[in-house]
Amino acid sequence: MTEKLELAGKKITVIGAGVSGRALAELALSMGARVFVSEAKKLAEENAKAFTAAGIDWEDGGNTDRALDADEIVVSSGISPKAPILVQAAERGIKITGELDFVYPYLSGVVIAVTGSNGKTTTTSMTGYFLERLGYSVMTGGNIGNAVAYAANKEYDFIVLELSSFQLYWAKEFICDIAIITNLAPDHIDWHGSYENYVAAKANLVNCLAPGGSVIYQARDEEALNINTKEDALKFPLLWHEDDPHRRGIYLDKKVGAAWINGGGCRMKHRLFFFDDLKLLGSHNIENAAMAAGTLALFNAGEVSPELISSYVPPKHRCAMAGKARGVTFVDDSKGTNVAATVTAMTSLPGTKVMILGGQGKGEDYAPLAEAVRENARAAVILGSEKEKIAAALSAAGVESYTLAADMEEAVRKAWKLAEEGDTILLSPACTSWDMYPSYNVRGEHFCKIVNEIIAAEG
After folding, report:
1. How far apart are CA 412 and CA 140, in angstroms?
2. What confidence tens digit (pLDDT) does each residue in 126-159 have?
3. Tens digits of residue pLDDT in 24-48
4. What is this structure's pTM?
5. How far apart are the C-alpha atoms of 13 and 28, rounded to whole Å?
């Protein structure tokens, strides 16, 4: 391969040694490069052993000048362009390449790229699941599961990737056949510096679209994404009403209770599924399913039957039923790590809620969250490092029925006492877990453990 010859003997430094960083280092090594890995934090013991066994040099606890002894620096997922080591590299004229650009030349298969503020994990995993069940060879990964680099030098029919705004910030040469932007809402402002910069990173996925490729997006986000600047793309806006029967798009029909698509590979109006066939909570998941099923329709990849769509089990901690006791429903949405995600969960689920909020913030404004609590919740229980800020926002919005908790155990117990029959206790923190837990997964598992204890005690 030409690419392999180009990397042979080349000095490659990988910045960041998480899941994607390790995969990038191993890929570069397999292509004949001399690899050095630099990690600002403590290197995971498993990765340290793997690097040493493979003959990959590494450092942790900070990025030193050793990282700059390179022909090219490859940036793993989540590394900011403001990182001092990258600023120094740029000043020295060292080539800096993002994860997607580095891996893309080695991908083989139709590339479906999914991004968005919320719903991207569900949409990605659902798309991959449908394709696999229909008999295609599929790699589903990116920001979930398998790192992008693990798809390199392998033959797939489809490669379905969840992509973060961090990954897309660096993308200049990456190309996808279908771009899906599930929605836009403020997130990761602390990383990008502003909402405008964050949206620009998400919109960069449209720039990565192959000529004649298709983009699926919320109709309301069309202007923000600059969709119309991509003139050769097939555009499929998603709407909850049919504004023009001749317009290409994906439509959600509340009267009939069905999703359908107009245009593309399926040509004419084509029903995707009935809402009742979907076994997921919330109207936002209908949108996710419509984007996933619509993607298959664009390729004429196969029919998403009622049996297929109802068999899909969503990833954990995303508006997942955690249990029920004494007429009160517990829902685990620990993945709700920003204000928009929590507001969506709150407004998509029926009935009155008792909210469990808080964790480590991302620099967001909590006013929209407070307004949603005022309109949709009986009460809120707040924990974590942001609890005072969230409490202040609730007070400013006129919400009086909230209380603070020291930890998850206390929060769930307090929510249980506040809830009435028919209510939903919804863990959707609007914050990351990093002040109290290593991940939203661990936070969600702890919530579910406490819920199971309550259910067992109720008999």
Report:
1. 34
2. 999 999 999 999 999 998 889 999 999 999 999 9
3. 999 999 999 999 999 999 998 999 9
4. 0.79
5. 9
